[in-house]
Specification:
There is one protein chain. By secondary structure, this protein is an alpha/beta fold. The protein folds into two domains: about 60 residues; about 200 residues, Rossmann fold, CATH 3.40.50. It is about 40% helix and about 20% strand. The protein has eleven helices and eleven strands. The chain has a seven-stranded mixed sheet with strand order 5-4-3-6-9-11-10, with helices on both faces. It has a two-stranded antiparallel sheet with strand order 1-2. The mean pLDDT is about 90.
Length: about 290
C-alpha cells in the first residue's frame, strides 16, 4: 500500500499531509475526527487520551480510499454515505442534499414552538427526510409527512425513518402539480426549497457545485420565489386556519418573502436570523 497508518495518531498525520493546501487546518481536524470515529469506531475520549490505539489494515486501506475522494473535493458526507442531523443519523446519496446547520436551526425553532403538538406536519421537498425525521423524533405526538418529487430521495428518506425508529409517511409528488397529489391537511407546513439564484452559483464551493443535486439548490434569477409561491398555493388548500408556515429562505430575499406571505393572507410574520446573523427562516400564521 505504501502508506503507514497503524494508530489513531497516524490517521491525523496522514490526513494533514495529504489534504494540506486543499482544506483549512480546522477542516482537516474535523475530517480526521469524523473518519476516526466512523471508520475505526473510536470515540472522542479515546482519540484524545489513547492516540496510540491501533487500527487494522482494512481500516487503513479505507482511510486511504476516503482521502483520495476528499482530494477531489467530494464531501465527506457523500463519501461515507451518512451524516448526523439534530442527533439523528441520516443516510445520504447523490439525490439528496447534505443537511446544513442552518436547517438544524429551522428544526430547532419548530420543535421549541410546538412542543406537545399533536396534529399533522407536512415537509415539502423532504430530500433525505432529515427535517421530517428530526421533527417526528422530537414532536412524538405529531403525524409527519414528507413529500418530494424524487423517488430516489423518497427511498432513502424512508430508510432514515426506519434507521431512527420514527414513523413518517413519505409521498412522491410535484408541488407544481399539487392537484394530483394525495396530501393530508396540516397544522404546520415546513420547507427548505431551492432558493439559491443562478447568479449566486459563483459564490458556491466546488464541493457543492460538482457533487450536490442542482435541482435541489438553484432557481432562476427571474423567478427566485417560484417554489414559495407554489407552496403557498398548496397551503391555501391544506393548511388549517391558524396553522403555521416555516420556510428556510435566501438571506437576500427576506423583504420579498415578508411581502409574499403578507399578500397571501398570513400574520405574525417574522424573519429569524441564523447563527451567522443572516436572514434564514421566515414563519407566519394563516389568517381565517
Amino acid at each position: 500500500m505504501g502508506v503507514n497508518i497503524q494508530t489513531i495518531k497516524d490517521i491525523r498525520i496522514y490526513l494533514s499531509g495529504e489534504l494540506n493546501g486543499i482544506y483549512l487546518e480546522k477542516e482537516i481536524n474535523a475530517l480526521s475526527n469524523i473518519i476516526t470515529e466512523t471508520v475505526a469506531g473510536i470515540s472522542k475520549l479515546h482519540r484524545l487520551y489513547k492516540s496510540e490505539l491501533t487500527i487494522d489494515k482494512e481500516q487503513a486501506a479505507r482511510i486511504v480510499k476516503i482521502t483520495k475522494e476528499l482530494q477531489k473535493g467530494k464531501p465527506i458526507q457523500y463519501i461515507l454515505g451518512e451524516t448526523f442531523f439534530y442527533d439523528c443519523k441520516i443516510k445520504l446519496n447523490s439525490a439528496t442534499l447534505i443537511p446544513r446547520p442552518e436547517t438544524e436551526e429551522l428544526v430547532h425553532l419548530i420543535i421549541n414552538e410546538n412542543r406537545g403538538y399533536q396534529g399533522d406536519i407536512v415537509d415539502f421537498g423532504t430530500g433525505s427526510g432529515c427535517i421530517a425525521v428530526a421533527l417526528a423524533a422530537n414532536i412524538p405526538g405529531a403525524k409527519v409527512t414528507g413529500i418530494d418529487i424524487s423517488e430516489d430521495a423518497i427511498s432513502i428518506a424512508s430508510e432514515n425513518a426506519i434507521l431512527n425508529d420514527v414513523t413518517v409517511t413519505f409521498l412522491t409528488g410535484d408541488i407544481f402539480n399539487f392537484e394530483e397529489m394525495a396530501m393530508p391537511s396540516a397544522g404546520i407546513i415546513v420547507s427548505n426549497p431551492p432558493y439559491v439564484r443562478n447568479s449566486e452559483k459563483k459564490l458556491m464551493g466546488k464541493n457543492v457545485l460538482e457533487f450536490e443535486p442542482h435541482t435541489a439548490l438553484f432557481v432562476s434569477d427571474s423567478e427566485p420565489l417560484v417554489y414559495y409561491e407554489a407552496l403557498l398555493k398548496i397551503a391555501d388548500k391544506i393548511l388549517a386556519t391558524g396553522g403555521r408556515l416555516y420556510f428556510e429562505i435566501n438571506e437576500a430575499l427576506g423583504d420579498l418573502m415578508v411581502r409574499l406571505l403578507s399578500a397571501s393572507g398570513y400574520s405574525d410574520i417574522k424573519i429569524i436570523k441564523d447563527i451567522n446573523n443572516k436572514d434564514r427562516i421566515i414563519k407566519g400564521t394563516k389568517n381565517g
